[in-house]
From TrEMBL:
Residues 10-64 form the HTH cro/C1-type domain. GO terms for molecular function: DNA binding; iron ion binding; oxidoreductase activity. This is Helix-turn-helix domain-containing protein. It comes from the Bacteria. The keyword DNA-binding applies. Coiled coil: none annotated. It holds the Pfam family HTH_3. InterPro entries: Cro/C1-type_HTH, Desulfoferrodoxin_Fe-bd_dom_sf, Lambda_DNA-bd_dom_sf. PANTHER family: HTH-TYPE TRANSCRIPTIONAL REGULATOR XRE (PTHR46558:SF11), TRACRIPTIONAL REGULATORY PROTEIN-RELATED-RELATED (PTHR46558). The keyword Zinc does not apply.
Amino acid sequence: MNSVKVGGLIQSLRKEKNMTQNDLALLMNISDKTISKWERGLGCPDISLLNELSTILGVNIEKILSGELQSNDRDSGSMKRVKFYSCKSCGNVMTSTGAINISCCGRILETLQIKKDSGDHDIAVHETEDDYFVTLEHEMSREHYISFAAYVSYDRFMLIKMYPEQNAELRFPKMYGGSLYVNCTQHGLFKHEKIEQRRIVKSEKSIADH
């Protein structure tokens, strides 16, 4: 651990928040001389103080210890790069369009790996004037169900959470040129390309029947 780099990062983050060394010291219930010592690279924060320092400065502990923040490449603006994350403990669903560390329930989440549609998740798309109404031939028990679906086009996306014992169906506005992502609790995340090219049922009655 490079104490000079750690001190430089602490100083930079403190100034970003318009805090003096004394302000930071008061929040942490330590002396401003200790803060000064860190920032001059003459020592590093004790491990017992890292969690509080991380919270105050708004930076992960590992970044403080490394002494640097690495910026991601600028977002290209395309939602087609979206990545999905799902917490196995609470079911929380999160997304990103760039490199990011995401944690939930105390665990770092891994990106859900996209699988090719095997054909086991049959989809019917019912087209209305303004919407798509999608039905899935899929079990919706507590042990095996579709946990979320998302429709992604170039510059926007719509995510719909789904729950066991409800119908495996969803409705969303038409966004041409997009793809449908469906996450199964047992088989993972599947991507269905170009939903408008799938089996379309242009019938208001077929929707009413559902």
